[in-house]
Amino acid sequence: MVANYADVIVMRHFIEGAAQYASEVTEVPIVNAGDGAHQHPSQCMLDLYSIYKTQGTLENLNIYLVGDLKYGRTVHSLIMAMRHFNPTFHFVAPKELAMPQEYKLYCKEHGIKYTEHTAFNEKVIADADILYMTRVQKERFSDLMEYERVKNVYVLNNDMLRLAKPNMKILHPLPRVNEIAYDVDENPHAYYIQQAGNGLFAREAIFCDVLGISLEEVKNDKTIIG
């Protein structure tokens, strides 16, 4: 029914694989806007763009993924995309929210270097090029007591950035809860607001791609303002 009225369907669903299934039963392009705890491809595209824009490269970077690595679909997507660029990942999470075994196996199969940490302090993150924070997702927990136990385990504040490399940038897929203190917002390492803005360009590019619109056509379209 929806396909009768749309040129593109953007689909976010709580069940893993829902977007894949939808793509098999309609001729209209399906853009996956997140399926359960599985993947988030469009966020991954803007993350790659943000990393490239701040670092000048995607190659050979130290990327620290912090927080909810068990359910965080954005970090799962980023691992798979970065396999082409020889990254070194650092997985920083409590054991309850550790990176799932399937993604660690993926890293081993593709020669991706990674280290796991449970500590989160200025010394642990001192070598980061990208510090990718995530929120602990309350909606994923059936046991709220478990959520309360881990929700404030890792909170980034300004004092923790005193040893940071000059080029280091802080990313976050948003929304945040309290895993980044508000005093970090004015820190030159903070990039999560600009990162969100980059989503406009990444998602415009995705729409153009699935609709078969070339960059030359966009450039020549006189109806586009600015």
**Outline:** globular
Strand content: 5-15%
| Cα gyration radius (Å) | 19 Å
Number of DSSP strand runs: 7
Give the averaged pLDDT, no decimals.
Answer: 90
Strand order of the largest sheet: 5-4-3-6-7
Distance between the termini: 36 Å
Helix content: 25-40%
Helical segment count: 7
Class by SSE composition: alpha/beta
Topology order in helix (H) and strand (E) letters: EHEHEHEHEEHEHH
Low-confidence stretches: none
Largest sheet: 5 strands, parallel
Could you walk me through the main structural features you see in this protein, from its secondary elements to its overall organization?
The chain has 226 residues and is of the alpha/beta class. It is 33% helix and 15% strand. It contains seven helices and seven strands, in the order βαβαβαβαββαβαα. The strands form two sheets. Strands 5-4-3-6-7 form a five-stranded parallel sheet. Helix 4 (101-109) links the parallel strand 4 and strand 5 (113-117). Helix 2 (41-55) packs across helix 3 (73-82) and helix 2 crosses helix 6. The longest helix is centred in the last third of the chain and has 20 residues, at 192-211. It is globular. The two termini are 36 Å apart. The mean pLDDT is 90.
For this entry, give a set of tags.
226 residues; five-stranded parallel beta sheet; 7 helices; 7 strands; globular
Helix and strand layout, with pairings?
Blueprint: E1 9-13, H1 18-24, E2 30-35, H2 41-55, E3 62-66, H3 73-82, E4 88-92, H4 101-109, E5 113-117, E6 130-133, H5 144-150, E7 169-171, H6 192-211, H7 215-220
Helix pairs in contact: 2-3, 2-6
